[in-house]
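#dry-run=false #mode=assembly
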Amino acid sequence: MLAVYIVRRILWSIPFFFAASLVAFALIQAPPGDYITSFAASLAASGDIVDADRLEALRTRYGLDQPFIVQYWRWITGVIQGDFGISFEWQQPVSQLIWERMGLSLALAFGTLTFTWAVALPLGIFSAVKKYTIGDYLMTTIGFIGLATPNFLIALVMMYIAVVYFGADVSGLFSPEYQQAPWSFARFVDLLKHIWLPIAVLGLSATASLMRIMRANLLDELQKPYVTTARAKGLSEFRLLMKYPVRIALNPFVSTIGWAFPQLVSGAVITAVVLSLPTAGPLMLQALLAQDMYLAGAFILLLCCLSIVGMLVSDILLALVDPRIRFR
Amino acid sequence: MAVADATSGKDEQELQLASQWRLMWWAFRRHKLAVVGGTIVLLFYFIALFCEFLSPFDPESTGARDVYHPPQMLRLIYEKEDGGWGFGPHVRAMTQKRDPFTLETTFEPDPGNLIFISFLAKGTPYKLWGIIPLERRLFTASKVGEKFFLLGADRLGRDMLSRILYGARVSMTIGLVGVAISLTLGITLGGVSGYFGGRVDAIIQRLVELILALPTIPIWLGLSASLPQDWSPLTRYFAITAILSLVGWTELARVVRGRFLALRTEDFVVAARLDGASRARVIGRHMAPAMASHIIASVTLAIPLMIIAETSLSFLGLGLQPPLISWGVLLREAQNVQSIAQAPWLFIPGIAVVVAVLSLNFLGDGMRDAADPYAQGQSA
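#status=ok
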């Protein structure tokens, strides 16, 4: 039964991938004009002579004069074979540009997720057990503020504090000497020295909401009779807490792993721009603004795919945890 | 018992006669944070409505001598020239000094030079709502031509306080307009989906799932980047709102559909249908009122998301553009470390965003609890 459900769910996501790729392509096609138009504008701005014939030739070479559906077909067949087209601005194949940045984005999201879980769950449990104490109120307040503050604002405040009080520049993920260097152990250590700040910034609002949910879930459980029974039987308070109510309160979180991860990757875009991180976000923004369509399209498509896979993983995990769903 | 608990202090008879809305109001009033949040939200919308009258100066008037003018403290008691004490709101003037070698500018207090503030005084003329020409402002400098900066000045010497007050208009309404659009979409599609069920429901649900599966921020960025740069600020305002609600309606559609499905089989709805009421009457007279409170609460919780989204987009330069003033546009000035290190007061619009979002969240939470007949008594 479970296998049938999983197979059906996987088959269902195929039309989703198709629709998402259409959306991604429509998005990068949507701006009026194309890269050649903005290329011509930048040539004209720098005083070069714009040769209409040459522009037309470029357009034909890149297939930009073809109708939408033809361009889409060319693009998507390439993508399936791993060829994302070429970036007009960088004059390089897109696949060479994106992977390191996507990799760093994923590493950042993974770090943030770990941080969030490691911080939010204990704090949520504490806040539920010590309900209405100063600690609980303090955490509730921090939680609400964390939820209400846009991430980029926190990033700005952090940068301000670092510059004014510590005289340090906290933007980026690498020190200058490692920026272009190939991967090595020293570079990795350097990455660890820089990555904690973006992780903390990105993790704050997620931590806040996770903590609230954990607190609410656990509060519901703590009132149940089985807790009283266990306590009456003389189980120590800590074992009692960890063994039953916390495990049940954790259940809803299992299903959130799937979508929390892609959400973190795409949610980091704005913060990454502020902190000038070498992740996917800033390059995608730049590509969107320059109408570098294949580069922008590759990022949008990858982020969409990540979300769809995340939803898939969520649904499967949920079906594993909750038998009622499989039989629907 | 739960209801009696939520509305303690009311006698039994009053409680039994009270309408559903009155019960909700009583439950809401017990929620202190929600009441505070609601008051602040009302205040912000009041500011948005009358920002021209409330702001001391024209938000666009620049001053070369006031570039990054630091905030001045509002003082009440001053020393008169004859040695006596006087009472009146004023600030101490500051003058710009330029270091002859580094060309760095600093502001130094100019003792003895006071700028007085008067209430309902005539300032630079303006048009309320762009129609009614007026001259008086709630408070402004007593002498025409003098300026003071309670929250500092920006890169062009414009008064931050006035700009933040004007920003409230765009930032606070973009949430309302956006939510209105998502509400229309959400109620129509969610209602159709929930009422008819079957194939229509399946198609709409797949659409909602697809939109939910797409990553919000990249889609916003892509859509906003595709807006033509030469659109007028007002067109752009509506385009951005439409983009934000295009993604936001799905959540509301799910809420409405869920409520519709739950209500469809309720006894009173079945009774109305068996009584021969028309479909429109069943929806309009019986089902809609039962859902209204939930929808109002979801809407209140959707507004802050819109505000944050607008702020983020404008901050990146993809949202609203400068002649229009929103908090996000103002925060754009704080984009690089150099300017915020020199003028930390550029952060203040961010505080406005956080306060507005927090208040709306508290208000929405309170309304949701009050609207849920089963949650009463638990909410503290």
